[in-house]
Amino acid sequence: MSDQAMAPGRVFLVGAGPGDPGLLTQRALELMHHCDVICYDLLVSDAILAQIPQGKTLIPVGYRGYCGTSIEYGMHPDVVAQALAGHEVLRLKAGDPFIFGRGTEECLCLQYHGIDYQVIPGISASLGAAAYTGFPLTSNGMASDVTFASGHKASTTISNWAALGQGSGTLVLYMGAKKIALHAQELISQGKPADTPLAVIAAATSTRHRVMHSTLAKAGQEIAEFDNGDPMLVVIGDVVTLADKLDWRSKLPLSGVQILACTEHRQLIEPLKLAGAIVIEPVTRHVTLDIEDGLWQQLMSQFALHLMDRTSAEALLAACRHRRLDLRDLPWALTAEGDGVTLLAEQGVFVESAAQEGAMVIQQHTKGVAINYDYDPVNSAIKPASRVLVDDCHSLIFLISNQLLATKAVVMSQCTEVLELAQELGFVAESMANHDECAEKGLQSVA
Ligand SMILES: C[S@@+](CC[C@H](N)C(=O)[O-])C[C@H]1O[C@@H](n2cnc3c(N)ncnc32)[C@H](O)[C@@H]1O
C-alpha cells in the first residue's frame, strides 16, 4: 500500500438558479455529469435534482433560512470531507453562489484546506422572480438603480436605511418577507411613501410560483396569509406595477403545471414548454431492448419484416448486436414506419415505409420483444408525479410499479393503448395525438 496521502479532489460552487430546471446553465448540467458527489441546498428544486444522472452520491447540506445566522463552519464539513477524500464535488446552491450564498466563507474554507475550487454563476432568485412575474427591476423613467439587501435581521443588516427610504430605485429584500412589517416601518420613517407598491414572490419560477401585490403600509398585515413556507422575496418600488401590463407567464395555458416526461419523442416536449409547463426529463432512464430467442427463431424463417415503431427497430438492432450479426447478411426485406425509419436511418440503414405483402409486423408489444429498464428510483430525486408523458405501456407499468405516479395522476400519451391502460387502471388519460393543439388548449382529458 502506498504511503502517499491521497490528492484532494475539487469543489465546484455552482448556482442552480431559482427553481425552473430550464434556467440551469450549460456548465451546471455538464458538471452534474462530471462530478461524482453532489451536495445540494434544500432550496434546490426537485425538478433540478431530477437532472442529476444515475449513480452519483447525493448529499443534502445546508438548511432553510440559514443565511445570516452564525454557522460554525465555512464550507459544510461533508463537502470538505468528500473533496479531501479525492472526489470531484458539485456544491449545488440555490440561485447564484455569490449572492447571499456565503461565497466568501466557503471559498476561504476551501483555501484553508488546500482544496481547489471553481465558481459557476446561476440566475439569482430576484432575476427569476422579476422575469417570471412580468416586471423589470429597472425601467426608464421609473427606476434607474436596484439594490439587493438581506432582510434577515430586523432592520440592522441594511447599512443605509435613509438612502433607501429617499431613493426612487428598486429595493429587493432577500430573506426579508417574514419581517416585512419592520422593514416597511423603517423605510416609511426614512421618507418612503406608505403607498409605495411592493410584490412578494414565493417559490419563484417553480410550479408553485405565487405573487402577492401590496404596499409598504399594508404588507405587514397581509404576509401571514400569503406565507405557506416557500422561500419568499420582496421587491419594493414602482416597477412591480408593470406586471399588470407585462405579465406574460400566468396567461400561458400550462403555467404552474409540472410534467414528468418519460419519452423518446422530444418533439412532444417543446410545445408543452412553450405552453408554460415545467417539464422534468429524467436523465436516469435507460432502456435496453432485446428480442427473445423464441421470437428470433420465428423471425429467421421470414422473408420480410415491417417495424411499426422506434422500439421494435431498437429491439431488432439490439438483437443483431447481441448475436453479432450483420444486418446486411440477414434474409429479410426490411420496411419500417415513423420513428422506426428515423432510428434505422440514424444507424445508416435506409428503408421504405410501405410494408411488403406478407411481411411479419413487429411492434413494441409483440410478444418476445423485451424491454428492460435500468433505473434506480430510490436514488432518484423524482417524487411521485401528478402528470406524466409516457410513450408505451411498459413505461407506464414501470412507473406504477416503482410508485413514481401519484394516485390521481394524469397520464399523457400519443399511444391509444397507453391511454386505454391508464384509464383501466384508474388514472386520468389525456391524448397527445395532436400535441401542438393539446398544448395550446392546455390539454384536454379524454377520460
Ligand atoms: C440564503 S439566500 C440564497 C439566495 C441565492 N443565493 C440567490 O441568489 O437567489 C435565501 C433567500 O433567497 C430567496 N430565494 C431563494 N430562492 C427563491 C425562490 N425560488 N423564490 C423566492 N425567493 C427565493 C429567499 O428570500 C430566501 O430566503
From TrEMBL:
Pathway assigned in UniProt: Porphyrin-containing compound metabolism; siroheme biosynthesis; precorrin-2 from uroporphyrinogen III: step 1/1; Cofactor biosynthesis; adenosylcobalamin biosynthesis; precorrin-2 from uroporphyrinogen III: step 1/1
Keyword field: Methyltransferase, Porphyrin biosynthesis, S-adenosyl-L-methionine, Transferase
Keyword Transferase: yes
Tetrapyrrole methylase domain location: 11-218
Gene Ontology MF: a single term: uroporphyrin-III C-methyltransferase activity
Highest taxon above the source species: Bacteria
Pfam families: TP_methylase
UniProt cross-references to InterPro entries, sorted A to Z: 4pyrrol_Mease (IPR000878), 4pyrrol_Methylase_sf (IPR035996), 4pyrrole_Mease_sub1 (IPR014777), 4pyrrole_Mease_sub2 (IPR014776), CobA/CysG_C (IPR006366), Siro_Cobalamin_biosynth (IPR050161), Uropor_MeTrfase_CS (IPR003043)
A GO biological-process term: methylation
EC number(s) recorded for this UniProt protein: 2.1.1.107
First-tier enzyme category under EC: transferase
Family: Belongs to the precorrin methyltransferase family.
PANTHER family: S-ADENOSYL-L-METHIONINE-DEPENDENT UROPORPHYRINOGEN III METHYLTRANSFERASE, CHLOROPLASTIC, SIROHEME SYNTHASE-RELATED
NCBIfam families: cobA_cysG_Cterm, PRK06136.1
Protein name, per record: uroporphyrinogen-III C-methyltransferase
Species per Swiss-Prot/TrEMBL record: Ferrimonas aestuarii
